[in-house]
């Protein structure tokens, strides 16, 4: 049972690293959670949006298109996590509420993946502005913005803090 939990945690940690565009580390600390930072309220998100915009430096040129490839990789990781959770449930093992949510709502995730595949043309991400600095260097700026919103909201996104963050970010960019 404990081994199954470790395997699930490692899978999610690899997923977070893939989102950031980094190769997964060889060892995963047992207490490290993916995409997590200090939780911020709406006003703090507003200030963080300004700070992030000031720190972002954009580069010219084009980079390889990674969006659909990464989507396929993430889909594979999520399907693997669902398989692990399903196996645990069939073996009458307890799973965390987040695992239960994933199993109950996996159809929503699949729907969003299908929508993204249908509406994002090949090469789309090549046209996006790319960062030249920070942990997301070489990736489209929007990836880093999304990661910041997710990590500082503990994976929860509400309209007020999202709006505050994006509005503040945009006041600092041209």
Give your account of this protein's structure.
With 174 residues, this protein is an all-alpha fold. It has a domain at 41-63 and 126-174. It is 61% helix and 2% strand. A two-stranded antiparallel ribbon has the order 1-2. Helix 2 (42-55) packs parallel to helix 6. It is globular, with a radius of gyration of 18 Å.
Features:
mainly alpha; single chain; 174 residues; 6 helices; 2 strands
Layout: helices, strands, pairs:
Layout: H1 2-20, H2 42-55, E1 58-59, H3 67-90, H4 97-119, E2 130-131, H5 141-152, H6 159-172
Antiparallel strand pairs: 1-2
Helix pairs in contact: 1-3, 2-6, 3-4
Radius of gyration: 18 Å
What sequence of helices (H) and strands (E) makes up the elements? Answer: HHEHHEHH
The oligomeric state is: single chain
Note the overall shape.
globular
Number of strands: 2
Helix content: 55-70%
Give the integer mean of the pLDDT values. 81
CA(first)-CA(last) distance:
52 Å
Task: Flag low-confidence runs.
Answer: 23-33
Structural class: mainly alpha
Helical run tally: 6
Largest beta sheet, briefly?
Answer: 2 strands, antiparallel
Spatial strand order of the main sheet: 1-2
Strand residue percentage = under 5%
Describe the structure in brief:
This protein has six helices and two strands; from the N terminus they run H-H-E-H-H-E-H-H.
